[in-house]
Here is the input.
Amino acid sequence: MLLVALFMKSMYIYSNMDSIIMKKNKVMAGYHMLMILSEADGKFGKSEGKIIIDYLKKAFPFKLDLDREMEELSALPKEDYFLHFNNAMNDFYEDSTPKERNSFLKCAVKVVKADKKITPEENKYLKELFFAWESEYEE
Here is the structure.
């Protein structure tokens, strides 16, 4: 049985009592994607963090409580990053305009380039974004 409950623009879908899938709004979906991109190479750099903070300030000018988001991301096993990234990518797409997606793609590239090298793992995530949103990317 599928029970759907709405809570502040986020949808919680209970497929069973152990598993919850949450639809994120575009700001939180973007935050999750950027955090996964910053962790894809196995190290989170200060320069990556600054770019993510700038993204959050521009996307949502009010104070955010990221405790729940950080808890969710830190509990996520590395082998689940790609699936979580794809879910966030789809959530972002559903709530955004082509201009917002283009801006986000540029931000994602900045995060990956922040440590001056792009690893194969980071490249995998960027390719996924560009492949999914390619028809809308403007340089």
Q: What stands out?
A: The chain has one domain: 23-136. The beta strands are 3-7, 10-16, 19-23. The longest helix spans residues 98-113. Residues 8 and 45 are 32 Å apart (CA to CA).
